[in-house]
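haha ok so turns out i had the wrong file open the whole time. this is the CORRECT one, sorry everyone. sequence first:
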Amino acid sequence: MTIILVVSGVLLFVSALLIGYRVLAGPNSLDRLVGVDALLAIAICGLTIWMVYTRDTTLAPGVVALTLVGFIGSVSVARFRVRDEE
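then structure:
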């Protein structure tokens, strides 16, 4: 079980690095928005992996709060997004 959690953590770290590059080098604001949303999803998955590893569920409300913040943030930015200049 520990090997699976370590492999999951390493894969999440690698994907966070790749998505971090996309956030920094994104050609427009929508790419950056999707990248930040994906980074938040990776953070949520990382917290969940940590909860499974430690068998401690005290972080569960934090995961729910991060999910809510990510959803509300994505919807509000997508709603009020202005087109990028070509």
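The chain is about 80% helix and 0% strand.
again sry for the mixup
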